[in-house]
Amino acid sequence: QQHNHHQQQQHNLRRRRRRRPLPPPPPFDRETRTMAFLNSRQYCWVAMVVLFVFLACGAGQVTDTATGDEYFYYIPYLTVAIFFMFGLLMDVLFLDDAVFSFDPNYDNWRRRIDPKF
């Protein structure tokens, strides 16, 4: 009796340990794709950031041997790259219709959202 009970417990443990197959991934529809990737305008922002970071790395700094002054030629390029980076950030956060909509008038928002309005 006890041996049979022990075998039943082992069988239940083995059955519980079996891994169930994972469910198939959801289909790759257009809405998922547009959320995951940047649009062409945002790729232009990224290209400008990369270009100015590259220019900043290439510009470097120069020391005048006569006076000993250092000239940092990379700072203007890095500043422009930072401006473009913030432009990209604002574009991604606020310039897409599906992501963010700021409307200070509550009635306009309610009219768009509420089906009974």
Number of helices: 5
Rg, Cα atoms, Å: 30 Å
Structural class: mainly alpha
Helix content: 55-70%
C-alpha termini separation: 70 Å
Strand order of the largest sheet: 1-2
The poorly predicted ranges are none
Determine the strand fraction and express it as a percent band: 5-15%
Report on this model:
The protein has 117 residues and is mainly alpha-helical. It has a two-stranded antiparallel ribbon with strand order 1-2. A hairpin with a 6-residue loop joins strand 1 and strand 2. The chain has helices at 2-17, 30-36, 40-59, 74-94, 106-113; strands at 61-63, 70-72. Helices cover 62% and strands 5% of the residues. The protein has five helices and two strands; from the N terminus they run αααββαα.
Any key phrases for this structure?
single chain, 117 residues, mainly alpha, two-stranded antiparallel sheet, 5% strand
